[in-house]
Amino acid sequence: MNIAFVIDALVTVIGVTTPILLAATGELVVEKSGVLNLGVEGMMLIGAVTGFAVALNYGESLGDWAPWAGVIGAAVAGAAASMLFGVLVLTLGSNQVATGLALAIFGIGLSSLIGASYVGMVIQPFNQTFPDWLAADPIGRVAFGHSPLVYIALVVVVAVGYFLNHTRAGLILRAVGENDVSAHSIGYPVIAIRYAAVAFGGALAGIAGSYFSMVITPMWAEQMTAGRGWIALALVVFSSWRAGRLLVGAYFFGILMTLELYAKASGFSFLPSQFWAAMPYIMAVAVLAVMSARDVAGAEAPACLGRPFMPNN
Amino acid sequence: MKVEAPPRLELVGVSKSFPGVRANDNVNLKVRPGEVHALLGENGAGKSTLVKMIYGILAPDEGQMLFDGAPMRVHNPRAARRLGIGMVFQHFSLFEALTVLENIALGLDARLSQRELLAEFHKVLDAYQLKLDPRRVVSTLSVGERQRIEIVRALLLNPRLLIMDEPTSVLTPQEVEQLFETLRRLAASGCSILYISHKLHEIVALCDTATILRGGKVVGAADPKRETSRSMAEMMIGGNLKEITKPAARAFGPPKLETQGLSLPKPTEFGVALRDVALCVRAGEIFGVAGVAGNGQNELLAALSGEALATGAEAVILSGEPVGRLSVTERRNLGLCAVPEERHGHAAVSEFSLTDNAALTGRDRMEFVSFGLIDPSKATSYAAEVIGAFTVKATGPGALAGSLSGGNLQKFIMGREILQRPEALVVCQPTWGVDAGAAAAIHQAIVDLAARGSAVLVISQDLDELLTLCDTLAVINLGRLSGPMKVGEASIEEIGLLMGGVHGDPSGTTEMTEHLHAHPA
């Protein structure tokens, strides 16, 4: 095992981790406000196809700014999809689990429909922020050789952690997720705060999706997020709703997913590659089982998670 | 003629309806500046709806509200707080997973830094001699401590009208006296207080005026200084209040429920460890455990009911049989039943019907189960029997537990256990948040159960309740139980000191306990 291999592996881990980290950070905020949006996978796909479409169609006129326009488009599309969920769940009080699953399926279908005409097309990948001389060095490549989205994801998770634990607005958001009735009786606009959280989660899921279609493989393929939205959901529970653990957990899953890629590619595995493919999911189940065996489990979940709040009843 | 200042708060013809209920009907009310005004009424009389409208949580359908003579428009509690209206809720509006300080910050509209807030917090604590750790997480606090957060939160606002919804239920007599002192001082400084309580003697002691609500309407006003507790209670329920009848000169049978050297570690980081608890309840005896919230009451109940297993079987003895290592169900089958403090989610499942709730604890003792299946007709008729015998106001056995008012659900829960004819019954806070009529019914039921030869252990923070109900009394403080005292021979001051007084001085308590052990009552 040489240094080049380790660097390759590290770069892969960071790449694989970024989308689940982005999506899970968004979902963390949503769940902290007391809403369970299971539609992450759908919102990611809508973001992926929108980002790709924007970058493709405006690639010539916008030049260097096209990928940024794609990312913004993906965020807006993800947020718009989440607002559909928001209206159903927050205003009309529908069941959050069922609505979230519907959103996931809707997103898969809608993205396939929009993307049908884009299959086989390629865009300029959105990678490498820093100048070549920084990224050329093998060690430098680990730190500087990534898409801007990698750094954005890290900044966002730290910012969300700070927001939740050290700002008044974050405290209010947590209060709304903890006890909606009390927050309402103290005078906080529960529904508006939840809308904002859901929109933020949708935007981040959209950006996470665009990472697949604009960075990993700069092209569109149906269901190209390959279930990572579900991993992001598990990751939020795995992190027991804490931003710091979310970051660690995302890289843990990232390493597991990289193992799968390497097992497939190098054949160094004594186990079939399907086993490695299943590994992140098996680990998710195992970790959740261990965590719920601890007696404090569940105490960490926002108390109003998934419960509809209708203030006039 | 002297021109009077306008009332601090005036309600004119205020009405509010919910689907199927007219919660408030043409209510008129005047609260003068600096007045302590009692709002009296049974559960469901419309007090909560009324104060929610004043605090901006609900909007009235009709009528006008004036604050300092000017029409007030409060669309939300924030607007109410801006006017200077503070409120201490009956059902705490706290956030379990957050710390005390975070909870307080959420209730304040002013943006203070952590340090400023902490300084303000300690200022209020010192001024009102309350004890509260700002960094504790609320879920680890007792009911009493939680209420203290609410009180501090309201006091931090420097209110001009303070609404207090049953604030004293969990305080020691000394603490109640201190709170009253605080409220009087607050009133003297010009703050009006709207005081809701079922404890009529408190209203006599504290309030200047009382308005009595029944069925959503004002049925009368009274001067608490001239009325007796009894006459006000009768206005409140619109009938005669039954006095608890206790058979005189009762003899107690053999010991039924005993603990010996019952020690348990803290169940959670912030729980209370039980230390060497010894008590003995004889057949026919009502044994009271007094104490300030959070001194091991819930832990004691759990140890007796079987939710927490003792280290040795001999630590808990039921009718001579060691049961310390038996489960809840096994203990129930032997005749040890328990009613925990929290009605929703502990004593009863809110989302279940009364029939299902009856089956949950009565299935074995009342023989609902045949061939492993619950016989729904037996469970239903048992639930109906409880509803009938304890005059529970419910639509029937099919009603959801969560749809009942606090008092009615408590009557149902108590009835469910009592009709099982337990050998020993352990109850925690039997009348917490229950109106006077229901409380009297529950007390009578406890007395009747003891008269039939059961041993009853009542854990309560309401000392008056224990003094009227119990034959013997012990005080729990920091997980230790004092020696037993005969009711009538121990003074309230003594008991108050044992409860840790206001300062929570454990050394003084130990001394006092030793003193009482040396000179048994």
Helix/sheet category of chain B:
alpha/beta
Which residues of chain B form runs of ≥5 with pLDDT under 50? 501-521
Alpha-carbon Rg of chain B, integer: 24 Å
* Share of helical residues of chain B: 25-40%
The largest pleated sheet of chain B is described as:
7 strands, mixed
Report the span from N to C terminus of chain B: 61 Å
Number of helices of chain A: 14
Q: What structural category do the secondary elements of chain A indicate?
A: mainly alpha
Approximate strand percentage of chain A: under 5%
- Tell me the fraction of residues in β-strands of chain B, as a range: 15-25%
From the structure provided, what is the oligomeric state, counting identical versus distinct chains? heterodimer
Radius of gyration of chain A: 20 Å
Describe how the helices and strands are arranged:
The complex is a heterodimer of chains A (313) and B (521).
Chain A: H1 3-32, H2 40-57, H3 59-62, H4 66-91, H5 96-115, H6 132-136, H7 138-144, H8 148-166, H9 168-178, H10 180-186, H11 190-216, H12 228-238, H13 243-266, H14 273-293
Helix pairs in contact in A: 1-7, 1-8, 1-11, 1-12, 1-13, 2-4, 2-5, 2-11, 2-12, 4-5, 4-11, 8-9, 8-13, 9-10, 12-13, 12-14, 13-14
Chain B: E1 9-18, E2 21-31, E3 36-40, H1 47-54, E4 62-67, E5 70-71, H2 77-83, E6 85-88, H3 100-107, H4 114-128, H5 143-155, E7 161-165, H6 173-188, E8 192-196, H7 200-206, E9 209-214, E10 217-222, H8 229-237, E11 255-264, E12 274-282, E13 286-290, H9 297-305, E14 316-318, E15 321-322, H10 328-334, E16 336-339, H11 354-362, E17 369-370, E18 373-374, H12 376-389, H13 406-418, E19 424-428, H14 436-451, E20 455-459, H15 463-469, E21 472-477, E22 480-481, E23 485-486, H16 492-498, H17 506-518
Parallel strand pairs in B: 3-8, 3-9, 6-7, 7-8, 13-20, 13-21, 16-19, 19-20
Antiparallel strand pairs in B: 1-2, 1-4, 4-5, 9-10, 11-12, 11-14, 14-15, 17-18, 21-22, 21-23
Helix pairs in contact in B: 3-5, 7-8, 11-12, 11-13, 12-13, 13-14
